[in-house]
Amino acid sequence: MITKPFTILTLALALGSTGTFAQTATKVSRQDTTEATKIFRFVDQQPNPKGGQQAFQEYLEKHVQYPKMAIENNIQGRVIIQFIVTEEGKLSDFVILKDIGGGCGEAVRKVLEEYPYTWTPGKTNGKPVKSYFVVPFTFSMR
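Below the sequence we write its predicted structure tokens.
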């Protein structure tokens, strides 16, 4: 892991603004539109990482490594990753929504894919549901 003078900063997890929301979206499937296939963009109660937002931020800061290619090319900026939190609190279906290059998006995605803890799932009408979650992560060399 790279230490000073290079630092990796995470943005607030945007639990209220870009995290999950209470509108539904379904997986693209013309044959199967059962309740089990719904993935919610909007939920009554948002998914929450084990230990809360601060613990999750600290985990990312500790485990995401600034890629060598990004350092060599002075690449800085914000990566945004979307994933699904299942009804069981597992993370899946990682998609890099915004990448800055140099391997930064992949570095964050890899750490999220290996995240060892389950989340408290999002809830709608008091029931756990699959929901989307968005995580911004900032790479900075200061």
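Residues 1-33 have pLDDT under 50 and may be disordered.
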